[in-house]
Amino acid sequence: MLSLLDIILLLASLAISLALLVPLTGTLVRFRANYNPKGLQLDPEGDAQPHTGPVITSFFAMLKRVHDIEGWLGLYKGLMPSLISSLIVTVFLIIFLNDSNLRHGTYTAPSAGVFGTLMYSIFAMLLSLPQTIITDRAITTPHKLPWLDAANSCRILFTPTERSRPWILYLTPGLLAVQVAHIAYVVLVLRSIRQLILPELANNPGFSIWQDVSSVRLSIFFILALASTAVLAPLEVISIRLAIQRNHASPEYNSVSQEDSNPEYSGTDEDVIGLRTDRAPYTGLIDCGKRIIEEEGWSALYRAWWLTMLGCVSGAFS
């Protein structure tokens, strides 16, 4: 049984992690969600209109913009859903894992082969998908969300259609497809490559690869892990774009007309990011990728690609 000190240390670690990660995650989500078309766009009447939204070219420029417009509170948008989900996981770990696992951070997904790992990962994704949608929308909404009023926040983040039929979140066009594609690539491709090139590492996580593995094989695997950024970064951008796209009973409705309340806007009258209109929604994974390229250019699919690259490398050797 965990002692009171162990629980306090665990909660302190959680608090520090959230304090550091929430602003960085929020910046990443906003940077990738920001709609920045290349040229003139057509309004509902078919007339050409110049784009007037913010043009942000880097992760750190977005971080500064969020702080300048919304202050420190803006950097912590999305804290509450992240905190709630983290507390649920923490309570699960305290109840179901032994003291040694918690003290040494040795918890990992069950080892059940490639197919078992794939099924486990997809199941975990399905459980966490609503939390992912809530967090991404809480980060990107221009409204000021109340910290402790979940009902009012739901009226802001979800359309009446979604509130009356919450399961429709799982039917968001393309969202499940992009999530499964991301998981499948990591599990089926990256792990298979690791098993083929570095079986010592795949079969023995504690193996000292730096001393006992061929530098040639290690270099090849490192390069392939880096190359995976070309596949995973666009999937992560598309995932965010689809998660914040709200579901309506009719395409004629838009985000504003379906609001039941008159929520307060954050900061100043200036929006931190520009969002694409719901009147011309993405219809799926492929459609989202094609429209991003046509409207914003290839570079939009690779925003903050270096963060994806760091994740690929660290995950490949973990």
UniProtKB/TrEMBL annotation:
UniProt superkingdom:
Eukaryota
**According to its record, how does it sit in the membrane?**
Multi-pass membrane protein
Parts of the chain that traverse the membrane: 7-28, 78-97, 109-129, 167-190, 218-238
Q: What's the name of the protein?
A: Mitochondrial carrier
Subcellular locations according to the entry = Membrane
Q: Which PANTHER family match?
A: MITOCHONDRIAL NICOTINAMIDE ADENINE DINUCLEOTIDE TRANSPORTER 1-RELATED-RELATED (PTHR45683)
GO BP field: nucleotide transport; transmembrane transport
Q: Which UniProt keywords apply?
A: Membrane, Repeat, Transmembrane, Transmembrane helix, Transport
Q: Which family does it belong to?
A: Belongs to the mitochondrial carrier (TC 2.A.29) family.
Question: Which GO terms of the cellular component aspect does the record hold?
Answer: membrane
**Which parts of the chain are Solcar repeats?**
1-103
